[in-house]
Amino acid sequence: DSDIKANAERAAYTATKTLRKVQRKVGFPDRIRLRGDRMKERKTVVCFGDSNTFGHNPKDGTRLPWGVRWTSLVQEALKEEVYVVEEGLCSRTTVWDDPVEGVMSGISYLEPCLSTHRPVHILVLMLGTNDLKPRFGLSAYDIARGNVRLIQTARQSLLRKQGFEPQILLI
Fold it and tell me: According to DSSP H, which parts of 51-105 are helical?
């Protein structure tokens, strides 16, 4: 348990540090109402990934609790500055459907996912680990190209639907 928590804390620290840098560059185009009449600017951060984003517990197959998942640690660290959306799915790949587990391709769900959470200011992509499964027989180049397709799809889709591209962090 301490190893899982330590790994989540390291991932959250790195993601939080990077997201803070992105925040300084992007600004806060949206306003939401918080606590009465006070207005606070807030960004939507969509974390799109696999079991690592989902918070899969390798010991018993359950989901790690809030406060242990790296996405929840990012939300807690950035408080009301951002709204972190956890879009993790165990066994998700970049662009490949799995012949054993079925439709697990990130590309098939990315566009509907982003449309659901618009406006998306920051997209954190954490995919490619499951592409390494021997049954796919992919090279590092193939996996990188899958991530390039995800990035292109996200940029084009959100530019068309929300009028601006999100900042994208590939982990």
Answer: 51-54, 70-78
Q: Which two tokens stand for residue 23?
A: 């925040």
List residues bridging with 43 in a β-sheet: 82
Between 168 and 33, the more confident residue is: 168
Query: Residue 105 pairs with which residues in a beta bridge?
Result: 93
Are 113 and 55 in contact by the 8 Å Cβ rule? The answer is no
Helix (H) or strand (E) holding 157: helix 140-162
- Which amino acid belongs to residue 65? P
CA-based nearest residue to 45, from 98, 87, 2, 108: 87
Predicted confidence (pLDDT) per residue in 14-45, tens digit: 777 776 666 566 554 444 444 444 445 689 99
